[in-house]
Amino acid sequence: MKIQILGTGCPKCKLLKASALEAVKDLSFTVEIEEVIDIDTIMEMGVIVTPALAIDGEVKSVGKVLRKEQIKNIIEGEK
């Protein structure tokens, strides 16, 4: 599984990344976390407002800093 944090490195983007890192700590499978900061790539994924979170290339959240529990719930739904 690959989690992408889409954003330009703003404070909210960093908070979303921190939440994602916390959410995957206890998982029994490997998760890759990637920061996508290229604005063209972000826009190609259909994201206009950051931060955004994508799992395996599919955008799951836009414009919000999700909490650890919210990210865990999204991950559980993807398994």
What does this structure look like?
The protein is of the alpha+beta class. It has one domain: Glutaredoxin (3-Layer(aba) Sandwich). Helices cover 39% and strands 24% of the residues. It has helices at residues 11-24, 39-44, 68-78, and strands spanning 2-6, 32-36, 52-55, 58-62. α1 (11-24) crosses α3 (68-78). It is globular. The relative contact order is 0.27. The mean pLDDT is 95.
Brief account:
The protein has 79 residues and is an alpha+beta fold.
Strand content: 15-25%
What coarse outline follows from CA principal-axis ratios? Answer: globular
The number of strands is: 4
Number of domains: 1
Number of helices: 3
Separation of the first and last Cα atoms:
9 Å
Supply the CATH superfamily name: Glutaredoxin
- Biggest sheet architecture: 4 strands, mixed
Helical amount among residues, as a percent range?
Answer: 25-40%
CATH class: Alpha Beta
Strand order of the largest sheet: 2-1-3-4
Overall structural class, as computed from helix and strand content, comes to: alpha+beta
Low-confidence segments: none
CATH architecture: 3-Layer(aba) Sandwich
Rg (C-alpha, Å): 11 Å
